[in-house]
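Today's session is about reading a structure prediction critically. Students often jump straight to the picture, but the first step is always the sequence itself: look for stretches that repeat, for charged clusters, for runs of hydrophobic residues. Only then move on to the predicted structure, which in these notes is written as discrete structure tokens rather than atom positions. Here is the chain we will use throughout the hour.
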Amino acid sequence: MGLRETYVQDGPGRLGDPELVALLLGTGTAGQTALEVARALLDRFGGLEGVQQAEPGELGSVRGVGLARGVRIHAALQLGRRALAHPRDRPVVRSAEDAHGLLAPFLAGLEVEELHGLYLDRRRTVVARRTLTRGSHAFTIVDPRQIYRVALQLGASAVILAHNHPSDDPEPSPQDIDVTARVARAGRVLGVPLLDHLVITRGRWTSLAALGHVPVTAEIASGWTSEGFSLPGPYGTVHPCRPTWTSHAARWRSRVSRET
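Below is the predicted structure for this chain, in token form.
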């Protein structure tokens, strides 16, 4: 599968910086593929940040790039900068309900399972949404390394996961709970916490954090609350609840103290 097809079918989150730059280049040159030129460009400037700071002429001086392509890359990065310069245009996610509103349009009603990640900055503003995996009608494979590789590339400070159940049963499976625990552990090690993991179906959804399956600390709890929202129960009954991340942290500390 080519880069364009991967981008269309799996989304940009499945491609690294060299692949995305190669898409901007379009084609390679004699003796070099577009991907090889992209890697040479990133190496020349020490990565994407250096490319972003370079002038069009500097980009064009790299063998295989040329001025026209240098301008194209420079313009694309400038558009990205302009988009990030308007954080008020990006939603702030402070509750599971907020996250559900952003993720449900992409997941509800799908015939195969997909895992999506919502990546947030320190103010809980959305940095990006990524399609992380696609599976079958019954399951999708979740790799914490893939989730946090994207988080580190984006410079995200927190992660929210969501996947769908094509069966339309939003009750978390034992595998969902196990995966959530593994991802949460990886997040604590990296300092990029997992705030929640949602299971989304047609019209119904469940928050694993509200069910107590995402342990958080008091530090993580600050700036994130799920007070006052209603959670659809596993079988469609709407159960009003007022869980806060601080209360989850207290339960987690209590459990740790009992175990030690």
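Discussion point for the tutorial: The domain at 90-259 is CATH 3.40.140.10 (Cytidine Deaminase; domain 2).
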